[in-house]
Amino acid sequence: MPGGRLTQQERQQIAAGLADGLAYAEIARRLDRPTSTVTREVMRNGGPAGYRADLAHHATQRRTRRRPQASSRGTRAVPQPYGRDNAAVQEFQEALTTVILTSGLPSMAARVLGCLYTADDSLTASELAERLQVSPASISKAVTLLTGLDLVRRESEGRRERYVVDNDLWYQSMIRSVRDNDRFSETARQGVAVLGRDTPAGNRLENAARFLDFVSESLTRAMEQARDVLYTKPETPPSATAPSPDHE
């Protein structure tokens, strides 16, 4: 699998693939590149609808020329624990952020979430600002959005707040999605009463409500089962932690 930066010819192939409606994975397969490379390239340069090969190539060249200037301003790499390779961690964090971007989150919120996901501990707003080299105001706006979506949890530490993602992140996120589905389903049934069950529009809404009801019920059941199986630690039998009172 080739490494290094994308060539202008590869960018033209990406643009052609997008124009043909190909998925990122298929474009990546044709280029013999990781899917994350293609996804990151497109999302950095206008998204699927706005991607232009020549503009993307020039933008990458400009970013490359600016990197030495950024280093001279004192950008500091965060020391990595557990003997991790810092460059590999940064590359992964960027790839993860790109994937998060495709879900529709704004760029800064995606960067904050990617940073928190790759941190072993919770981080303060100032620590996030330092790691991402952005202003505290940008971090504040991003974490307000993320906590509102139940994607990040706040922890109080005296007068400071720390932010973390944990095992409940996807559970809470999917619960929120189920609630959104339930609201749509309820509203759709109101529309059925207004438009008439036997009309094309009424039938469409009725089918949507039934579909969402089924999906929500199945998702809720699966989420509860997954939460119990994956995140519930088995209890340690009393005999394994303390001797019996009758034992001599």
Main attributes?
single chain; 248 residues; mainly alpha; 3-stranded antiparallel beta sheet; 5% strand
Question: What can you see in these coordinates?
Answer:
It is a single chain. This protein is mainly alpha-helical and 248 residues long. The protein is 67% helix and 5% strand. Strand 2 and strand 3 form a beta hairpin. Helix 6 packs across helix 7 and helix 10 packs antiparallel against helix 11. The longest helix has 32 residues. The termini are far apart.
Low-confidence stretches: 68-76, 240-245
The multimeric state of the shown protein is single chain
> What is the global morphology?
globular
**Which sequence of SSEs, written as H and E, runs from N to C?**
HHHHHHHEHHEEHHH
- As a whole number of angstroms, the C-alpha radius of gyration is 24 Å
| Structural class category | mainly alpha
Tally of separate helices: 12
Cross-sheet strand order for the largest sheet: 1-3-2
The helix content, as a percent range, equals: 55-70%
Beta-strand level of the residues, as a percent range? under 5%
How would you sum up the major sheet?
Answer: 3 strands, antiparallel
* Average of pLDDT: 83
Straight-line distance between termini: 65 Å
Tally of strands: 3
